[in-house]
């Protein structure tokens, strides 16, 4: 793995909320000082270590538990976020879609929590800053649905790219195939939700944008 690749992995992991800002900064500092963690501790190295999201873990199991913990926090927060939006949503054509996304987020959280328990761990990760801000915006009664769609689009402009680090992580899991497959299915759900939200954003914001354009002429 070269440094450029490592940097991209770290950035994707940070943006997807997999690692905290503190962990991101720490790993970046190590990268800058040339401690690139290649060799024995590289991808599934002979030492038993596992490299994921630009970080070194003692084992694949440790990386999987860390992912499930953070993903549980993010998905529980996502469920509350979309539930709050659904209650405030006044745009008929997207209201039940928002409710469906809230249900998806809630069942992702349940599955991740169950899997954590099966692996002998308990959730302990906090919600990251982006997730907290996103929930705040989606729960704001003064923000229109079209504006909320734009906030989401700004955060997740391309869902495939946004979830790429998680897809790559799933691909590299070799031992815990149960979690591997559940993560792959989870990513498909998230890409579906994100793509639908962005299509709704484009459709519902387009008339306003073209009126603004016409007014300017
Ligand atoms: Fe989610």
Name the ligand types: fe (ii) ion
Given this structure, which CATH class is correct? Mainly Alpha
Radius of gyration: 19 Å
What is the mean pLDDT? 88
**Sheet with most strands: strand arrangement:** 1-2
CATH arch. level architecture: Up-down Bundle
Low-pLDDT regions: 35-46
Tell me the number of structural domains: 1
Structural class: mainly alpha
Identify the CATH homologous superfamily.
Answer: Ferritin, core subunit, four-helix bundle
Beta strand % = under 5%
Q: Please give the alpha-carbon distance between the first and last residues.
A: 52 Å
Give the % helix.
over 70%
Main sheet specs? 2 strands, antiparallel
Shape: globular
The CATH topology is Ferritin
**Secondary-structure element pattern, one letter each:** HHEEHHHHHHH
Per DSSP E runs of 2 or more residues, the count of β-strands stands at 2
Treating each run of at least 4 consecutive H or I residues as one helix, how many helices?
A: 9
